[in-house]
Amino acid sequence: MSLDDFLLRMPKVELHVHLEGSMRPAVLLRLSRRNGVVLPADDEAGLARWFRFRDFEHFVQVYLTCSRALRTPEDFQLLATDFLEDQARQNIVYTEVHFTIGTHLTNGVNGEEVLAALEEAIRDGEERLGVRLRLIPDIVRNVPGMADRTLEWALAGRGRGVVALGLSGSEARFPSEPFREHFATAAREGLHCVAHAGEHAGPASIRSVLDVCKAERIGHGVRAIEDPSLVAELRERGIPLEVCPSSNVCLGVVSDLEHHPFDRLLRAGCRVTVNSDDGPFFDTTLTDEYVRLQRTFGYGPAELADLALAGLGAAFLPEDERAALAAGFREQTDQLRRDLSP
Fold first, then answer.
1. Which long-range contacts (CB under 8 A, 24 or more apart) does 263-268 make?
2. pLDDT reported for residue 123
3. Mean pLDDT value across residues 118-142
4. Which among 20, 171, 199, 216 is annotated as catalytic?
5. Is position 199 annotated as part of the catalytic site?
6. 138 with 67: CB under 8 angstroms?
7. Which structural domains are found in the chain, ordered by start?
8. Which whole number is the average pLDDT over 159-172?
């Protein structure tokens, strides 16, 4: 077995991936035909070409088109099921997915019906595929008017798949402060708190979400490397970073993988995890991210398995479930390492 095969089969966890941004061209084509959405191409190959990242404005255009194609509960269930099937193919046994419910509420969907549809897809994924999915509805900084409804939907989803409240949007242009009470309420009601920061803005954005949101994990967080004192704080507090290497390259956070701070953050003792962000838009998967990191930084099978376990360690799971999954991870990974080609 090759190292690439090892990485495909290795049990994995993903903590930073957007459900809408995981829509494959085939799913968008099916939804567009169902809902009368006009697309720039009428076949899967043409849409695949359109999906290829060009610049940030193009990325937003594709993302919003995918969001607009989701109209009915069945649409959301189709997307989640397709996503889970691909996670199962990669042996990604547990996923926490960001979901911008505010966009869909603005588009007129029924929030309870969407929650029920996603709950059914989650149940099907566990029973049929053996993989678990949990939801992180995220407040978008640049759309503060939807924050209350996002929090309401998140609270309604407790025990039905929702594990945390998230914060996304432009940290460079919009502050976190307006959402302090939203995150305080979420925490009081038993939800975890995560926030995008340290991607398009520097260390100050990370410090802000640690203070305002009491963020337990940082989405991206790679620009912490610019502030050694912040790196030390993240290490000492054990705050995990949800790192998305290919996304960072595509969106211009770093010039290329060789200059990505992933390895420096890891060697500094930070809890880094590997994630895909919006896979189809950045021509990647979680497995691809592991492959690219291995080829860039020369990690061996043991180090790669440790990265997978780091993702599991940062997941919002009850400790007994985490321990059971960790035992399975180690058993599977040990067997796969024995099967590796010399």
1. 263/296, 263/297, 264/225, 265/222, 265/224, 265/225, 265/231, 265/241, 268/231, 268/235
2. 97
3. 97
4. 199
5. yes
6. no
7. 3-25+79-339 (3.20.20.140)
8. 96
